[in-house]
Amino acid sequence: MKRNILLHPDPRLKKVASPVADITDDLRQLADDMLATMYEAPGIGLAAPQVGVLQRLVVMDCIKEKGEAPRPLVMFNPEVVAASDETSVYEEGCLSIPEQFADVTRPSEVEVRWMTRDGTEQSEVFTGLWATCAQHEIDHLEGKLFIDYLKPLRRQMITRKMVKLKRELARA
């Protein structure tokens, strides 16, 4: 089932999400719904707070090439356990901040640990777009948006555009 994606500014996007204590069937269904929502958007990552659920859950799939098999990841309680000193810059966007993009500098390689949908612990080293996406989605769990990395004037400009967009959508 497709979920509605919250649009910035929404106070729920700035809240810290709660750890998942027990991976239930309801949470697995939420993960499936989030993947469907992300693919339809279309996006490469989605965090539970973006669909109004303040739990530590993210989904992502950075495979974008035609003909390449998708690689959907469901991560409960993900955390970055190691990050490289080397950084990279990616132009980031966000499903909660549509049509707004900006360059963000982040560690170019991160090791992330999480619980899978069946409750087993997993960790993986991500590089490139996968590393950026993982950090972007984990930031959502901390109530942090990619625009928080921007200079105040640029952040305010994007926020004003989003307020205008939300007003227009409310009228539609």
Chain-wise SSE layout:
Elements: H1 25-40, E1 45-47, E2 57-60, E3 73-83, E4 87-94, E5 97-107, E6 109-115, E7 121-127, H2 128-141, H3 152-171
Antiparallel strand pairs: 1-2, 2-3, 3-6, 4-5, 6-7
Task: Report on this structure.
- There is one protein chain.
- By secondary structure, the chain is of the alpha+beta class.
- It has one domain: Peptide deformylase (Peptide Deformylase, Alpha-Beta Complex).
- It has 3 helices and 7 strands.
- Strands 1-2-3-6-7 form a 5-stranded antiparallel β-sheet. A two-stranded antiparallel ribbon has the order 4-5.
- It is globular and about 45 Å long.
**Would you list the SSEs in sequence order as H and E?**
HEEEEEEEHH
Q: Percentage of helical residues?
A: 25-40%
CATH class: Alpha Beta
**CATH architecture level-2 label:** Alpha-Beta Complex
Radius of gyration over all CA atoms, rounded: 16 Å
Low-confidence stretches: none
> How many beta strands in the DSSP annotation?
7
CATH superfamily: Peptide deformylase
Overall tally of domains: 1
Strand order across the largest sheet: 1-2-3-6-7
- Give a quick account of the main beta sheet: strands, pairing sense, barrel closure: 5 strands, antiparallel
Oligomer kind: single chain
| Count of alpha/pi helices | 3
Overall mean pLDDT: 96
What characteristic shape results from the CA principal axes?
globular
How much of the polypeptide forms β-strand, as a percent range? Answer: 25-35%
Under CATH, the topology can be stated as: Peptide Deformylase
Structural class: alpha+beta
C-alpha termini separation: 23 Å
